[in-house]
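In this section we walk through a basic example: taking a raw amino acid sequence and producing a predicted 3D structure, encoded as discrete structure tokens. The instruction is simple. Fold the sequence below.
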Amino acid sequence: MKEMNLEDLSRYAFSGGWFLIVLLLQHPKWLDRSPSAIGGVTAVIAAALLVGTLIYALHRALAYRFIFTVAALILVLFRVYRFERALVTPLVPSRAEVGIDDWRVRLLWWIQDHQNHQAEQLPLDLAD
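The resulting token sequence is shown next.
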């Protein structure tokens, strides 16, 4: 089983936790039936992670695709990319999408290389 770091917890559990808070605010009588002790807390945390994972997956599958399409169409309007039918067709990557993905990967590589270069410039006597 994978250990969860702070990024994973904020990605999955935060949205699930807010969902459970809103749900319990809408139905306060459910708090009377909630189990106490460690088993109950574990069940609430597991439910928050499960619901948060579902919310995150739906967001990535639906909302992210819509936002990406709108952003790509704006780039088409500014003549950065040519319009292709694949931009508005789901599950079909267009040349513009592949170009944007390649640009993002090159940018990440450049940032990592730049950070490595900056780390090499640090003096070693800072640990004192």
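Looking at the output, two observations stand out. The radius of gyration is 22 Å. Residues 84-122 form one domain. In the next section we compare this with other chains.
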